[in-house]
Design brief:
CATH architecture of the largest domain: 3-Layer(bba) Sandwich
Oligomer: single chain
CATH topology of the largest domain: Glucose Oxidase, domain 1
Number of strands: 22
Shape: globular
Radius of gyration: 28 Å
Strand order of the largest sheet: 7-14-13-9-10-11-12-8
Number of domains: 4
């Protein structure tokens, strides 16, 4: 039976809950009344609320139906039991037989052994799980979508009471920050390189929603529509204000504006209004859900899209409330550093460029739109700076050190002096990089090294010559699949690939066929659940199981490259049979286009990515079939060491500059040279001067790296004697060392290699 809250007066319940929470009296008594109301309206025999306590522990705070004596006594760790699972994944859990679930944790003192059906949802605030709300029934049943939606709405309203600090101390979940006058260092991840110093400005555009329950849904929908129009117009004005020379910011804003048209996002807000929320509360609810999803997504492109939707929600709230999203220009210091949880590209562009010196984000990824804008405007940006908003006060002096991947809060005079020295050194280095931009990447002993760029976003795609590169060694084609409303048809893809080729300025572009699956989810595509996504149904194996996806993409590539060279690379090839199957599909599509007298590429080259070690034992057969081979060092490294690169506890545990890894690459170079098959390497290794030096020492002569890394790596190449390095490294491959990093670093210093 559908719950009463979903089928009979949901707004009345929300209004009653709001009245209870606003009433005088002890917070726990109000929470007890809330669970009674929810149980009655949801026709549930149990309703319970667990709240997060320090140490990642969920404590039972209120219940209707379970043993009340267990309140404040029953505790579960995050990830423990079904309640802990809901908190860990920040997603609803709907089970017809909870006790059959492998994560069910029996607590005999609660008396819940007689309840089978369970529906639980996270209680979210500012993107963080602060509790769990659940209902239970004795009979085995599935709660319907309306009931799930209703409980999520109740959880959102309940977060007001939970987040007030009346039930648990407001600062309990935050580690003490210590003396605010003491200088602090906070580590992060470099997103846009550079050095900056300035006064901290806290960028917190989150609007406090004062009215949660709406009386007139149609009126709320009208207010939402008006605010959406205002939001789009504000982005249009920013696009119009961008100088034509600022290509990346303009492109970013064009894509950002497309997100404002996202029908799924707007539909979810509309549905939330339909549950009885005001327009502001509906936007906030969808924003909280988006933030929770961010914590579960490892893929940077998907996180980028979620960050943009999160930012749009914040701006939409500002339009609904009529409040400015940032301080006025006359309230900003002459030189300032922005401190934020996350930011969208529009936010960054709204601040005065002559005074904005840098930015620090608690979240953020190198592929986020705000990162692209920061790099285009030469604004140092540090991401993943955990706790920055809690550690930094407005008007604190802050140093952003992108090279050291850290920030200094309230620095001493000595630290400021060291910063000024670093700034001078960086200016000297940039002058050196600029001087070699148009020079060839040739070692001192005459060895030519091909330097190509990687790109994934259309916004990142530049003429490689602009940074002194030779071509595009890796173009990640999955982006249109991941950012759109679904998988685009071949004509839309062809237009996209054609623009990429146009921007390459006649230089070669290697298109990697889509690498989706695992944690790279495509809207509208049923990926299913996997225990180990990195080793699961992804990349080429997914494409071969769904050949129409690959056929459409190849058609698009053939159409886009008409009259030009086309380089196609298949990713994550585990065995030669997979490559043969993929190549057969390509050949059939080429023959199909030829039969229709469609214009074809002037040359088609087909390659494979070597990421799965098993392929090495089939190298002779593979090298007889491919036109080129590329090592994907990121995946290869994790498979070589059986080490999940997304697992924080394993960061730094293994080093790609180990004797075994470098010996593996040296052997691969020799075998490709014997077969006369061009070999390149793309991945993080290629973009760091010391690692790139080691790769050249192992025999590699083609690297694909980020555009910003071309200058430093080319400078290193031109200062290197490759033959001397090769002779030195020949003495290292059989060592039992964990890493050769220190030896190679000392070699570079002793031989004047610019790293």
């Amino acid at each position: 039976m559908t719950a009463q809250v979903a089928g009979r007066g949901p707004r009345a319940l929300l209004r009653r809950l709001h009245e209870v929470m606003a009433a005088p009296g002890a917070a726990e008594a109000r929470l007890d009344e809330v669970v009674r109301l929810v149980a009655a309206n949801m026709v549930a025999e149990v309703c319970s609320v667990y709240l997060m306590r320090a140490g990642q522990v969920l404590e039972l705070f209120a219940t209707e139906g379970l043993n009340r004596a267990t309140v404040h006594r029953t505790r579960l760790r995050v990830g423990e039991g079904l309640v802990g699972r809901i908190a860990a994944y920040a997603r609803p859990l709907n089970l017809s037989d909870a006790q059959a679930h492998p994560d069910f944790a029996y607590r005999p003192e609660t008396g819940e052994e007689s309840y089978r059906a369970l529906l639980g949802v996270p209680i979210l605030r500012a993107g963080r799980v602060i509790g769990v709300l659940l209902v239970q029934n004795r009979t085995s049943r599935n709660y319907d979508d309306e009931e799930v939606e209703a409980l999520q709405t109740i959880a959102m309203v309940l977060s007001e009471l939970v987040g007030s600090g009346d039930l648990t101390p407001a600062g309990e979940l935050h580690e003490p920050g210590g003396n605010a006058t003491i200088a602090r260092r906070i580590d992060g991840v470099k997103i846009a390189n550079g050095l900056a110093i300035g006064v901290a400005v806290l960028h917190q555009p989150q609007v406090v929603v004062e009215h949660v329950v709406g009386d007139d849904p149609e009126r709320e929908r009208e207010r939402l529509a008006t605010a959406v129009v205002a939001l789009r117009r504000s982005v249009d004005r920013m696009i119009a204000d961008q100088d034509e020379r600022d290509g990346a910011p303009r492109d970013v804003l064009e894509a950002y504006r497309m997100f404002a048209e996202d029908r799924g996002w707007l539909r979810r807000i509309d549905e939330a209004i339909g549950t009885g929320l005001t327009a502001e509360a509906a936007v906030l609810r969808v924003q909280e859900d988006t933030r929770a999803r961010m914590g579960q997504v490892a893929d940077p492109y998907l996180r980028e899209r979620l960050l943009d939707l999160d930012d749009l929600a914040g701006r939409l709230l500002a339009h609904l409330s009529g409040r400015p999203a940032r301080p006025a220009d006359n309230e900003l210091p002459d030189a300032f550093v922005l401190i934020a949880r996350s930011m969208g590209p529009a936010d960054l562009l709204e601040y005065p460029r002559d005074r904005l010196k840098g930015a620090v984000l608690e979240e953020g990824s190198p592929t986020a739109h705000v990162a692209i804008v920061a790099r285009a405007l030469d604004i140092p940006l540090l991401g993943q700076a955990r706790g920055a908003l809690g550690e930094i006060d407005a008007n604190d002096t802050v140093i952003v050190d992108g090279e050291a991947e850290c920030i200094y809060v309230r620095p001493t005079e000595d630290a400021v002096s060291a910063f000024e020295d670093s700034l001078r050194l960086r200016a000297e280095r940039r002058a050196v990089y600029a001087a070699v931009r148009d020079a060839p990447a040739i070692t001192r002993d005459g060895q030519h090294v091909l330097l190509n760029i990687n790109a994934g976003l259309p916004l990142e795609m530049i003429d490689p010559g602009e940074v002194g590169a030779d071509g595009v060694g890796l173009y990640r084609t999955e982006l249109p699949f991941m950012l759109g409303a679904g998988i685009p048809d071949s004509r839309v893809q062809a237009d996209h690939y054609r623009r990429v080729l146009d921007r390459a300025g006649g230089r070669d572009v290697v298109f990697r066929t889509f690498d989706i699956g695992g944690d790279k989810r495509v809207p509208g595509f049923d990926h299913g659940e996997e225990r180990n996504p990195a080793l699961g149904w992804r990349s080429l194996r997914l494409a071969l199981d769904r050949p129409m996806l690959l056929r459409q993409q190849i058609r698009a590539l053939l159409r886009a490259a008409a009259g030009r060279r086309l380089n196609v690379m298949f990713p994550m090839v585990a065995e030669v049979a997979e490559f043969d199957a993929a190549r057969t599909i390509l050949e059939r599509e080429r023959a199909r286009a030829e039969a229709r007298d469609a214009p074809l590429p002037s040359l088609i080259r087909i390659g494979a990515m070597l990421e799965v070690p098993h392929l090495v034992w089939q190298l002779p057969a593979l090298l007889a079939r491919v036109d080129f081979l590329s090592v994907g060092s990121n995946d290869l490294t994790q498979f070589m060491f059986a080490s999940d690169r997304a697992e924080p506890r394993l960061v730094g545990r293994y080093d790609p500059l180990s004797p075994g890894m470098l010996a593996f690459l040296r052997d691969l170079v020799a075998r490709c040279a014997e077969a006369r098959v061009p070999l390149s390497l793309c991945g993080e290794m290629a973009g760091r001067p010391l690692e790139a030096m080691a790769l050249i020492g192992a025999g590699l002569r083609a690297l694909s790296l980020s555009p910003s890394a071309v200058g430093p790596v080319k400078t290193m190449v031109r200062s290197l004697d490759a033959a001397a390095l090769d002779a030195y490294m020949a003495t290292l491959y059989d060592l039992p060392d964990h890493s050769l990093r220190d030896r190679l670093y000392n070699y570079a210093k002793d031989h004047g290699v610019f790293i």
